[in-house]
Every structure is written in structure tokens, then in C-alpha cells.
């Protein structure tokens, strides 16, 4: 039982991190109708930026304080992501306003390849460290209830807490601020939003910047866990089932989808995996989503697609 | 003063201004349909309705069969021509599903893998199995898997379907790695073949492999072109364009979508078997990973969705680009005095590749095939501007 | 107007109700259509006319009621079944296959009658192929429709590039290609100028005259409706408020009130 709860909690925390990445997808899709395949590359790019800046800035400015270094590196990386968002909007999105979904998808794939190459050109392709002070030792909880206690990774716990905080604040932002309202208007109908004076360009830059911010936080967390390396951009492929499960346009969906996939992956790997030869994590999320979609083609919380004739 | 019909100052023919203008220019109009009147629906329905096109294709085929083997060296066969032929075939299959029937599939690599591993199993487990039969049977296995994973398309659409097809990709990746029966108990999922022969002829030389692949490609291209211009092709396109209206006209979405998946997977499976047997010789599941799926999708988008020719253009572009960059980048760097390491070349390749994709999609979202047909339109009128 | 022999009831709709969430699109509608007649459905915008056609056609499924066609009753229709039974329609917003040419769009109307299987089509050739012959036969039929609708010059043009009026003709052509016994026309003259309307009316009447096709027509232009219909149904807010010959409907006070408002 203790082991089951351990796995469960581990899954919940992993799921929280998936949700964080999924959130980037949902934000961009909600506001610009683009399915951003480059989200993973953005995570890598942001993480690389942060990792290298946290080395270079203290060197350049000649101080030794880790916390200050990290804060400045984060700020610099964030600024970089905003610039990237602006460039993407100005040179790519603006020219593709009325194109079909598959064209937009392929463009983001092109952007992904570009960012992968560019990031490694600018920042190098070794494995880099991000150290934001997340504790690495595990905790043992409930030692009185279970013999030996439940093993919980402190690092994952902190990471999940950060992710949860971010997700909640973004949800609140969407619901209660005027910019959030404008974003929802744009997501609903581009032309109608424009006709009441909302600037699509400005909104898109904001959204992609926020997605960049989300990517940076995700990259920071994953990077401090795994080290910053190329495989980080593949993390996005793990988040895709989450996005679809939750429904492409739903922020709560991304959260719940993440938790479901996170828990499902861990539990299935531990309990079903050995029967099938192991390594089923790579497809479990996707197959789960496939079956859910068969029952609800728009995901758990997505909008139903009504074809009008 | 410009005379009516004058072709403009740049097109003055050399025999002087007196006879310049429309009469002179008309001699230069080599690519026009004047005088080619179709007297039956059958002749209007032909694949290459314009005589110049027919001659062009004939010449191209003759060159491909006779000229290329004489002119190309082994490197060109192995690195460019054979991959081009096989990937064109796979792109053709994918184009039927995505370009003609509008069902987005991101799992093409999986179907290639099924074709390759299935053909392998037939060869290895059945004595005396002819190569061609094994390849076609591999294609049939891919068809079965394709239809299975096509069933979700009856309920799921668009981006949701795209992600659902990834389930096929990752599941098949895992299956060929972990289920050892498929790979004749190889631990890493890697298998190899050797000593290929067709109808008694050994196809060990690059030329023989090239001709074998060329033959298969030509046959499949003809079959595919026939399908897309017949009523099943119209059913596919109707589903793509508006599936609600398609039902009203009496088209069965189930039949249309599943046949698209079936035909597409068959072709892709055969291409996969060719890729493994003829091009690679030995392979493991990573040869058919998600990168391959994306690569094929790029091919048909850059080449042109819903166009048989587009599949060839796209495949050529994607095959030649990395090779071109590999040669050109260090050379360019040398010119400017920068030493470009192999890692740098790899990174720059990614950047240029990604950048080109973005550029292309912005400038001509209908792909190279559209540029080609626009070019032909201009040729019809050349040397007149309109 | 030529004298047509108007036959028995071929299509009957009984107590149909259709709701979308809280919106009542149709409430307890019953009407019948006789063979060979031109039956118009009119009413202010939002009255539920298109929804009515969509129910007959299987695009929407009504919550209550029954549809009887050629003697067989159904609680709801299935689009393909309806097509097989001989009902074709055009759409208010043009549901043409934008990626295909005019010829291909109209050929798609022949789909139900094309019987060659996928292998025959794959091995099609100009010398001994059943698929080639079949394609030629149906092409002849489609060419006659193209002549009838006077759109020969555009047959290879992708429909997305044609002006609206011509697209409407292609929509009609595709429906005609199905050789239907009942033709549902959803605002076939919307957005047309006087000349185009005259052409379209001529086409509709010719189809009714020559082939005896029963026509159910939604139309806003009162002149056209009064001119060419045999009987008219009037809907308002999803309810039926009038049913009869043009003269009867013109004199119906409820209908007048719905269209012109009352002066209370």
C-alpha cells in the first residue's frame, strides 16, 4: 500500500510538470489557433539560455552570489524568450493568418528545428547544469503509518508546487484581468476581436511570451532535475497526450489531463509494465488518449466541434 | 508605339522589327495546346492530356532507365537516387491519406516499420519466399495495421486525430523493440538481410537496386494516379473538403476513410520494406522513428498536398538538401575563413532546414507542385506575358 | 406554367420537433409534399426552414416526430440512406468541394451509381478497362447537366475560384447528377441579381417539367415563390402558420402579420 501511494504521488508530481508544458500549448492554441509543436524546442532553448546565463553573468559582472546569479539569469532568459516571441509573431505568424491548421503545425515544426539548431549554436551542445537550490535528498513521510515511511522526492515536491502555483496564477490571470479577457476574445473569434479594437499582433506577442515564460519555468525545473541537454526538447512529446486529453482549449483540462497521464504512466509502468516487457511509458499516455478520444472526440474538456452546413 | 500583340522589347526576335510581334513570338510558343482537340471523353481524361507532357514524361523515363545508370556513380545511387525513389513512394502513400483524403497522420514511420519487419519475417521464416512476394506481403500487413489505426478517424478529426496517430508510432516503436518474436529474437530489435534476388536476377549492385526501386515506383505511381482520378479519388477529396456534404451526396465516410488508410498504408508498407531491404540492408526500430514520420510529412507539404507529382518534388527536396548543405556549408565557411566543425554543420543544418520550411510555407503553402503548375501555365503562354 | 400531373403524397413530415439546447428550432411541424409538385417553404429569417430541410435530409436528428418517404416511415433519416432513396439537395451556404473542379464536383453526384471496385479503378487504362468505360458513361450524363446549366467553359476550374452565382449552379448540378425524385433547394437564388434569378428559376422549372422531379424550395423572393410554386408552407419561429396555394397563403392574415407586422 505504501508503495502504491509512493507511485501515485510520484505520478501526480510528474503529471504536474507535464501540465506545465501542456499549458504552453493550450495558451498558444487558445489565442492564435496554432498548435505549437515548437513548445519543446522552446523549453530547451529557454533552459539552455538560463543555464549559460547563470554561468556567464556572474563571470561578466564579477560576483559570486548564486541566488543573484540565478535571478539575473532568469530575467535575461525571460527577456530572450520575449524577443523570440516577438520575432515569431512579426516574421511568421503575421504572414500565415488564414492558413490551414496543418500548414501552421508544420511551420511550428520548422520553428522547432530552427530553435534546436540556433540554441545549440548560441549556447553550445554539452550538458549544462541549472542549480536553483532544489533539495536533492528524498523525504520519508508517514513513517508511523507505513514501515520505513513513504519515499517522496523533495525535489519533485518543490517542482510540483512551483508548477501548481504557476498554473493557478495563469488561470486567474485569464479569468480576471482585462488582458486575459482580450486573450479569450481573440481565441473565440479573430475578426470579432479585431473589430472591437483588440490588436491581434499585440495579443499574439503577449501569448507567445507567456508561453515562453512557461517554457522557461518548465525548462528550469526539468533542467535542474535532468540537466540541460538535447533530450529536453523531447519532453514536449510527453506533454502532447496531456494537451489532447484535456481538450486543446482548456486550462483546467491541461491540469487534470496532466495528473491523469502522470499517474497513469507511473502506475502502468510499475504494475503492468513487467508483464509486457517493460518500457511501456512511451506509449501508455498516447494509447490512453486514443481510447478516451474514441468516446469523447474533443477530449475531456474540449469544445465540441459542430459542423454547420 | 506598341503594336497590339507585341511581345515587348525584350522578346524582339533576331529577324528584325518588321516581322516582330505576335507572328514572330508565336514561333517560340513551343508549349501550347493549339490544335490538340480532344474528340472523346476518354482522350480528355488521360493522365497527360497535352502531347508535350506525354513526350516529356517518356523522355524522362528513358533517361531514368538508360541514362542514369550510365552516368551516376555508386555514391549517387546509394546516397541520393535510391533513397529518393523509396521515399518518393512513401510520400506518395502518405499524400493519398493526408493530401487527398485530408486525414492527418503523424505515424507513418510505424507503417513503414510494419512493412519492413513483416517482410523480414516472411523471408526468414518461409523457405524460398521470393523477395517481391515478401515485400508485397509486408505491405499487406501494414495495410491491416493501417486500417486498425484508421478506425479512430471515423470519430476523431484534425489535430486530435494527428495526436492519436502518434499512438501508432510509439506503440510500434516499442513493439519491435520489446517483442522479440517480431525480430526473430534479436535483443535490440535490429535485423539484417542479404543476398537479394528478383526472378533469378541478383540485385546486389547499386544499379540493379536502383532499377528495381524505379520499377516498383513507376508501377505504384500509375496505380495511384488511376485511383485518384476515379470515383474513389473523388470520394477521398470530398471527405477532405466537406464530409457532411459528402454524406448528403451518398458517399460513405467509413468506406472512404478506411480505403484511404488501407491504400496509403499498403504503399507506405512496401516503401518501408524496400527501405529496409534494399537501402539499409540491416536496420533497427529507430530507422522508422517519429523523425521519419515528420520527414515524410515535410515532403508532401513542401512538394504539394493532393498532388502525385508533389510527392516526387518533396522527396527530392528533402533528400538533396542535407547533402547539399553538407558540401556547401564547410565550403562557404572556408571562403569566409571560418572553420565549421561537423557539430556546427549539424546545428546549422537544423537551422537552415527549419528556416527553409518556414519560408516555404509562408511563400507557397501549396508546395512545389503549385509552383510547377504555375510555371507550366506561364510556359503555355510564353513568350507572351499573359 | 405547363400542366403537370401532380401525384400522391411522396414525402410527409409529422409532428417534427427539433431543439438545440434551449432553442426550439422547430415545434410540432407537419407538412406533406406531393409528387411532381413545386412546394415552397417560406418564412422570416430564423423561422426554421433550413432546419426543416436538414431534418428531411438526415443532417439534423429531430427529437420528436416522424418522416415518411415513399411509404416508409423513419424517426430520423440517415444522410446516405436518404441519398440512396432518391433525395438530393443544395445548400444555403454552398457545401461544394472547394478543392475539386466543377466537373469533379458534379461527377461526385454520380457516386452512388458508380460500381467498379477499387482494383478495377487502380488498373484503369484506355484499352480494356471497365472503370474507364464507366467513367466515360457517367461523364456523358454530367456533360449534359453542364450543358443544361450553361457552365461548359468552367468545367476544369476549381470551384473555389468561381463567382458565387456560378457556384450555386454547380451546387444544383451536383444535386441533379443524383437523378433524384425529390430535390430540396435551400435558397437557390440567394445573393443573385434579377438576371441570375431568372436563369435559376428557369432551371428549376425545366427540371420539374422535363424530369418530373418533385421540388421542395426555400426562398425569400416572394415574386419567385408566388410565380413558380404549386403549394406553400409558411413557418415562423419554428411553427407552421400557413399552408396552401399561393393565393390562399397571400390572403392569410397570420402570414401577413409575420412578414409585415401588425399596426396595433
The CATH architecture of the largest domain in chain C can be named as: 3-Layer(aba) Sandwich
What is the approximate shape of chain C?
globular
Total number of helical segments of chain A?
12
Sketch the topology of chain A as an H/E string, one letter per element.
HHHHEEHHHHHHHH
Which topology of chain A does CATH recognise?
ABC transporter involved in vitamin B12 uptake, BtuC
Cα-based radius of gyration of chain A, to the nearest Å:
20 Å
Return Rg of chain C in Å: 19 Å
How many E-type strands of chain C?
A: 10
Total helices of chain C: the number is 10
Mean pLDDT of chain C: 88
Structural class of chain C: alpha/beta
Mass-distribution shape of chain A: globular
Q: For the residues shown, what is the average pLDDT of chain A?
A: 81
Q: What share of the residues of chain A does DSSP label as strand, in percent?
A: under 5%
CATH class of the largest domain in chain C: Alpha Beta
Strand content of chain C: 15-25%
Query: Termini distance of chain A?
Result: 55 Å
- What is the number of independent domains of chain A? 1
**Can you tell me the residue ranges of chain C where pLDDT is under 50 for at least 5 consecutive residues?**
none
Helical content of chain A, roughly?
over 70%
Largest sheet of chain C: 6 strands, mixed
In words, what does this structure look like?
The complex is a heterotrimer of chains A (309), B (386) and C (264). A two-stranded antiparallel ribbon of chain A has the order 1-2. Chain A has helices at residues 2-32, 39-61, 66-91, 101-123, 154-176, 178-188, 190-195, 200-226, 235-246, 251-271, 273-276, 281-295, and strands spanning 138-141, 150-153. In chain A, helix 1 packs across helix 6 (178-188), helix 2 packs across helix 8 (200-226) and helix 9 runs parallel beside helix 12. Chain A has 309 residues and is an all-alpha fold. Chain A has a single domain (2-295), classed as ABC transporter involved in vitamin B12 uptake, BtuC (Orthogonal Bundle). Chain A contains twelve helices and two strands. In chain A, 72% of the residues lie in helices and 3% in strands. In chain A, a hairpin with an 8-residue loop joins strand 1 (138-141) and strand 2. With 386 residues, chain B is mainly alpha-helical. Chain B has a single domain, classed as Orthogonal Bundle (ABC transporter involved in vitamin B12 uptake, BtuC). Helices cover 69% and strands 2% of the residues of chain B. Chain B has helices at residues 22-28, 41-44, 51-71, 74-100, 108-125, 131-150, 158-178, 206-228, 231-241, 243-248, 253-280, 290-303, 308-336, 342-363, 367-381; strands spanning 191-192, 197-198, 201-202, 282-283. In chain B, the strands form two sheets. Chain B has a two-stranded antiparallel sheet with strand order 1-4. A two-stranded antiparallel ribbon of chain B has the order 2-3. Residues 1-21 of chain B have low confidence and may be disordered. Chain C folds into two domains: 1-86 and 180-189 and 209-264, Rossmann fold (3-Layer(aba) Sandwich); 95-179, P-loop containing nucleotide triphosphate hydrolases (Rossmann fold, 3-Layer(aba) Sandwich), CATH 3.40.50.300. Chain C has ten helices and ten strands. Chain C has helices at 49-57, 79-85, 102-108, 118-122, 130-149, 164-177, 194-211, 222-228, 246-251, 253-260, and strands spanning 9-20, 23-34, 38-42, 64-69, 72-74, 87-89, 182-186, 214-218, 231-236, 239-244. In chain C, the strands form two sheets. Chain C has a six-stranded mixed β-sheet with strand order 6-7-8-3-9-10, sandwiched between helices. Chain C has a four-stranded antiparallel β-sheet with strand order 2-1-4-5, with helices on one face. In chain C, a hairpin with a 2-residue loop joins strand 4 (64-69) and strand 5 (72-74). The mean pLDDT of chain C is 88. The A-C interface holds A 308-309 and C 54, 59, 91, 93, 95.
